[in-house]
Amino acid sequence: MALKVSSVLCRLANVVTQQVYRGTRVNSGILNKSKLIVQHDSFFHTSTRRNDLMEFFDKKEDWEEDQVSCGRPWKKDELRIKSNEDLHKLWYILLKERNRIMTLEAELERQGLYLTDGWRMEKVEVSMENLLTVVKERDIALNKLETGYSGEPCVYNARNALGIKYKRVETEHLVPKYMSRRYKLLHSKYEPWMAQWILKYEESKRLKEERREKYYRYQVKMMQKKHGISEKEAIKSVNYIRQRSKELRNFSV
């Protein structure tokens, strides 16, 4: 009898362990001819409905339209007044919209066509970037309130194998740097023979900055001469062009 009861209790423990994570409840009537009565309080689900792969395409009534109506991107001030739960939901809405546009663009490219309203992707990316900025602001504020620090990785000066200083961001490693042979090899201590190479590097860096500044002034002057605008407007235009060209260089598919 003891053996029979212990086996039933073992089965009961296994069922309870499995059903706790599924949102179910086991009835208090433990033994009912060695059968358990399980009642479901909630059902785990991912979404209310499923649209298969068509969920990643636009609506069928918009397929023949050259231009699809789309609102402006979310602003940071609008996102700051929303709760964390609303931001979490909005993030997945934007992520789903971005996947939909990327799927549509890939399908059009397969057919030899192109996406006429590519600005939709730009608006989604701007909204996602603003949302990440707001979430980062909240994380920094919470960390400063609790610990006094922002919680972001610290940036410190390190030397490479040639003794040249550069900015390095702290990252987590399994092996500490004072025990890592690779770190000691790539970040050696300063030695007298490094001085001449450091001076040459600083000189080439200074000359490069001077050439860049000279070309910047030349661009501003040519912008004023060509379009007849003020110096302030020319500087603003040149800065915008440089920023856009930098973004295009850093863009990766």
TrEMBL record:
GO terms for cellular component: mitochondrial large ribosomal subunit
InterPro entries: MRP-L47_sf, Ribosomal_uL29_mit
Mitochondrion keyword on record: yes
Top-level taxonomic group: Eukaryota
Protein localization: Mitochondrion
GO biological process: mitochondrial translation
Keyword annotations: Mitochondrion, Ribonucleoprotein, Ribosomal protein
Molecular function (Gene Ontology), one example: structural constituent of ribosome
Chief subcellular location: mitochondrion
Annotated Pfam families: MRP-L47
Family as reported in the entry's similarity comment: Belongs to the universal ribosomal protein uL29 family.
Protein name: Large ribosomal subunit protein uL29m
Organism: Crassostrea virginica
